[in-house]
């Protein structure tokens, strides 16, 4: 009976000693988990914006092929960008700067360049935890100049 009482008292002491370990482990691991989730969200939105920007630039460059004059090419490319921005969820209309013209390296190529400030995505709160590679991103797509 005495041995049983000693075993029971040891189990009670061990239970009291282990009570706060879960809270301490949670307190140690939680900042790492929050930083990891913030990094996943930040880079997911950032890479999604880069991909979408590249996609819209490609669509605008392909649309500019149909133009005969340079002004018509510019208008077609800008119209395609505005249409894509109106139907997209990441970028607000007017948030992307569009430059359309000849490629400086080769005048037989026509270039469409889109520039976007990633601070408009609303990642500034998450960027305090995880740094964003660049605030200003651009995408340039070139196509062979068509027409007569």
From TrEMBL:
The chain crosses the membrane at residues 21-47. It comes from the Bacteria. Keywords: Membrane, Transmembrane, Transmembrane helix. Residues 20-62 form the TadE-like domain. This is Pilus assembly protein TadE. It comes from Methylobacterium durans.
């Amino acid at each position: 009976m005495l041995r049983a009482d000693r075993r029971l008292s040891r189990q009670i002491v061990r239970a009291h000693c282990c009570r706060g370990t879960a809270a301490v482990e949670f307190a140690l691991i939680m900042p790492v988990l929050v930083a990891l989730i913030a990094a996943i969200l930040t880079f997911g939105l950032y890479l999604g914006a880069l991909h979408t920007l590249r996609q819209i630039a490609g669509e605008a460059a392909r649309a500019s092929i149909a133009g005969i004059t340079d002004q018509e090419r510019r208008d077609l490319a800008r119209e395609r960008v505005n249409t894509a921005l109106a139907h997209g969820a990441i970028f607000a209309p007017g948030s992307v700067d569009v430059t359309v013209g000849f490629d400086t390296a080769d005048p037989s190529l026509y270039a469409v360049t889109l520039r976007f400030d990633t601070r408009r995505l609303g990642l500034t709160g998450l960027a305090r935890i995880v740094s964003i590679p660049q605030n200003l991103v651009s995408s340039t797509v070139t196509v062979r100049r068509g027409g007569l």
